[in-house]
TrEMBL record:
<comment type="subunit">
    <text>Homodimer. Heterotetramer of two MnmE and two MnmG subunits.</text>
</comment>
<keyword id="KW-0274">FAD</keyword>
<dbReference type="Pfam" id="PF01134">
    <property type="entry name" value="GIDA"/>
</dbReference>
<dbReference type="Pfam" id="PF13932">
    <property type="entry name" value="SAM_GIDA_C"/>
</dbReference>
<dbReference type="InterPro" id="IPR047001">
    <property type="entry name" value="MnmG_C_subdom"/>
</dbReference>
<dbReference type="InterPro" id="IPR026904">
    <property type="entry name" value="MnmG_C"/>
</dbReference>
<keyword id="KW-0285">Flavoprotein</keyword>
<keyword id="KW-0963">Cytoplasm</keyword>
<dbReference type="InterPro" id="IPR044920">
    <property type="entry name" value="MnmG_C_subdom_sf"/>
</dbReference>
<dbReference type="InterPro" id="IPR004416">
    <property type="entry name" value="MnmG"/>
</dbReference>
<dbReference type="InterPro" id="IPR049312">
    <property type="entry name" value="GIDA_C_N"/>
</dbReference>
<dbReference type="InterPro" id="IPR020595">
    <property type="entry name" value="MnmG-rel_CS"/>
</dbReference>
<comment type="function">
    <text>NAD-binding protein involved in the addition of a carboxymethylaminomethyl (cmnm) group at the wobble position (U34) of certain tRNAs, forming tRNA-cmnm(5)s(2)U34.</text>
</comment>
<feature type="binding site">
    <location>
        <begin position="12"/>
        <end position="17"/>
    </location>
    <ligand>
        <name>FAD</name>
    </ligand>
</feature>
<keyword id="KW-0520">NAD</keyword>
<dbReference type="Pfam" id="PF21680">
    <property type="entry name" value="GIDA_C_1st"/>
</dbReference>
<dbReference type="InterPro" id="IPR036188">
    <property type="entry name" value="FAD/NAD-bd_sf"/>
</dbReference>
Amino acid sequence: MFGEVYDVIVVGGGHAGAEAAAAAANMGSKTLLATMNLQTIGQMSCNPAMGGIAKGQIVREIDALGGYSGIISDKSAIQFKMLNKSKGPAMWSPRVQSDRMRFAEEWRLALERTPNVDFYQEMIQGLLLEGNKVVGVKTSLGIDIRGRAVVLTNGTFLNGLIHIGDKQFGGGRAGEKAATGITEQLTKLGFESGRMKTGTPPRVDGRSLDYSRMIVQPGDAIPEKFSYLDTPVLTEQRDCYMSHTSTLVHDLLKEGFDRSPMFNGRIKSIGPRYCPSIEDKINRFADKDSHQLFVEPEGWDTVEVYVNGFSTSLPEEVQFKALRSVVGFEKVKFFRPGYAIEYDYFPPTQLKHTLETKLVENLYFAGQINGTTGYEEAASQGLMAGINAHLKLNEKEPFILKRDEAYIGVLIDDLITKGTEEPYRMFTSRAEYRTLLRQDNADLRLTPMSYAIGLASETRLRRMEEKERRSAALVSFFKKTSVIPEDINPILDQVNSALVKQSDKMFKVFSRPNVTMGHMMELKAVSDYVAENDLGREEMEQAEIQIKYAGYIEKEKNNADKLHRLENVKIPDNFDYKKLKSLSFEAREKLEAIRPVTISQASRISGVSPSDISVLLVYMGR
């Protein structure tokens, strides 16, 4: 069956695995996607949504690089929202509510349409090794499949254990068995492993809910989309709804706390700090009388509903009794109860920035195996692992995104240099250059890079270049064109801005905080220019941001340039930190373990102080 040797074997068909397989194959590698169930490729194991705060920026970046997540999200969206629109553009974050079944179907079809991708359904139980190099995988049936590189994207399946109250059973997801063998082999090879926990809420029958008693949560009046390509824009949307817990609900949940695996010691691993279970919220925020619940439809046609905010591992009868006391849920019927799941992960400080392991050559880890949480974080790692596996096999330079180039760069750098002891989730606050890393300019930042390595298509590059040219021309128009007081003062009066006494350049007036593109479009010269050049929303938004935030953008670019000087100071591969007695003991220990490639990376390691960096710089002759 497997006489040929694959270039890349991807283990796992979730968000990381699907992106890894697509990237490697689209770059020209003969790729095998091996998964335990071909019917669950691209499965949304938890909430039926993509994007959100910082996560939406990651989806845009994946799309700009030539990945599939943005395209799939657009094709299966049922609602679109741009979050944080009341704040500056660095904080704007796109999010879609997805049709869960269509999302998975679109992923499966997209991969089937991708040349160079083969599929095989079976559990992978181990790796084939020659010395310290991976040369393939071994299946549970004992079949050896040879491959020049392997990407592990096992999600929550490695020795997965599901908890519902005092019941527990093996599984990687509800109704699916756990994966065994890989953790045991890797730990024998010298890898450090750990356990993490995540959870999911009950799924309920939407026909049993009283939406009239809830608060409606509609999508944006003018919905946008994720992909920079010609994917569909929503013409109709499904509403979501909001309800709240109460002190009665909390009291009913507390009745089951003695049987909660969270509190009775059955679960010893750490769960996601920023997506806690309902019992954890009640326990940690005892002063709060209620918590928000978001009622999210699972698709266009299904009646299944996801109760966002009610993640729990309490006994099923406790979940049911408490949820029936929530407004609008008085007659609720369960499709399935919520549960918690524990699984193995491998601290990501054991990886290089390419996501290749330091111990085993040509072996890559991506997704929850690295201690992250979230579809978007997983998908971006899968994409980068697939890219770098292909590049290494073809003896090309690795593709590593810097912290000022992409949220993906921040994510991977955080994992490699700092590690994580709890499920890692991306936030805008983690990025020190977030004014540069906006969701609107991901294509301008990343598509040329991806095209240069052979992933992003020429179509993407030409679209990006045209957008850049047209938005720059609009900025130039504002810089060159003057406006007279009689035309602009009525607009300035509307927004309580100081009136002008003589003609001034439009650029200067537009730079004022309260003046928007909408206001400028009231000027005939601007509306005529936009109409004559057939400018779209993206180009106009890009021009507005470039004008209004020019100072902030320039300042961040200067700060990034300073950082790049340290990036250029390389640390030799086998550098002996023990001989530098001036380094603190903690710094020597951390630097020996992580082995940073540059002084800049060393400076971001927790426990390495500025004085330790000074010692290194002196030693390097700087």
